[in-house]
Structure formats: C-alpha cells, structure tokens
C-alpha cells in the first residue's frame, strides 16, 4: 500500500511575514507569520501567560480556542 505524498509548503525564513489581505481604508492586514516553530495565521487571538501560566484559562480551554501562540 502506498501513502499519498503531499508536496511540502514553500520554506520561508523564520521571522518572515507575508501579507495576504489588506484593508484599503486602514493599515489593517492579514497574513502568515513564519517562526522557527511553525506558521501563525493573522489576525489571531493571543492569550497572555505570566509566570509560565495563562491565569484565566486552563490548558483545555487554551486548546479549545485554537490559540496558535501564547505571549
């Protein structure tokens, strides 16, 4: 049995932002931000963790909201 082989995404350097949409009346934009750990789609909700913990959400809730990054 042969597994389908998918084409890898284009490799981009970490720290690279690619705008994919812009609002012509403001400076707002949406796009992809590439990090060494993966790609983050913007805009996004970013929970803030202090002292290594997101105080208002438990880990199950952080996963459920689909957080791509924690500040």
Largest sheet: 3 strands, antiparallel
User: Into which percentage range does the β-strand content fall?
Assistant: 25-35%
User: Strand order, biggest sheet?
Assistant: 1-2-3
Shape: globular
Report the strand count. 3
Q: Which regions are unreliable across 5 or more consecutive residues at pLDDT < 50?
A: none
- Percent helix: under 10%
Q: Write down the overall mean pLDDT.
A: 82
* Number of helices in the DSSP assignment: 1
Task: Give the SSE order as H and E letters.
Answer: EEEH
What's the gyration radius in Å? 16 Å
Supply the helix-strand structural class.
Answer: mainly beta
Query: N- to C-terminal separation?
Result: 43 Å
What keywords describe this structure?
three-stranded antiparallel β-sheet; 71 residues; 8% helix; mainly beta; 3 strands; single chain; 1 helix
List the helices and strands and how they pair.
Elements: E1 17-22, E2 29-35, E3 38-42, H1 59-64
Antiparallel strand pairs: 1-2, 2-3
Account of the 3D structure:
The protein has one helix at residues 59-64, and strands at residues 17-22, 29-35, 38-42. With 71 residues, the protein is mostly beta strands. The protein has a domain at 17-64. The longest helix is centred in the last third of the chain and has 6 residues, at 59-64. 0% of the residues are buried.
